[in-house]
User: What shape does this take?
Amino acid sequence: MRKALKAMMFAAFALASAEPSGAVQTAAPAPAPIPPAAAVAVLPPPAVAANPANKLRLELSNGGAVVIQLRPDAAPTHVQRIQTLVRRGFYNGVVFHRVIPGFMAQGGDPKGTGAGGSELPDLKAEFTTIPYMRGIVAAARTEDPNSANSQFFIMFSPNVGLWGKYTVLGRVISGMDAVDRIAVGEPPENPTRIVRATLGDMPVVQALAPAAPAPAPIAPSPAEAPPTAD
Assistant: This one.
């Protein structure tokens, strides 16, 4: 089972499990080293910003809509993964399962537990020098830098401790008020869902109006009532 993805790892804790006397203990493999962060501009190039495929829109169950400027110039394989999953409808109905006030909101797990992901392979890290400002969107991972898959998190506030440790995908350019209203908790009691995720180059799908209720059956009047057998 995939290990629960965490949006932040301030420190690593070694957990020793009790084993029967005489059992041979083997050391856990060391996590992969953190790759160096590539120098990338904070603002996207004009061509990236102008491409509608790089605009991710999340319609949330709290009634808000969030628009994220994706950054394929900074994290090409991660952005391509997000775009692929959005076009498949992967994120529709997925909840924000880990939301910490003043820190971040994490989602993208179809299981809603933090232990899930897509059937696609994990991605290699694409760490950059983009600072973790309010509204930054980045890929969640395990202790292994190369374990990001489908989960992501949105920053509520700046955090210098994350710089160069997670892959930045983009930044919210509209709808941070909706992000601020995402239900909090680990997990939340009533989590906020992504009702629908779309890209700017996808056809606009209008919500279908509810069908009119069928007319109530008309009871026969006494004159029309069928005769009863005596």
About this structure: The two ends are 71 Å apart (CA to CA). Residues 6-26, 207-211, 217-230 have pLDDT under 50 and may be disordered. Helices lie at 46-50, 76-87, 176-180.
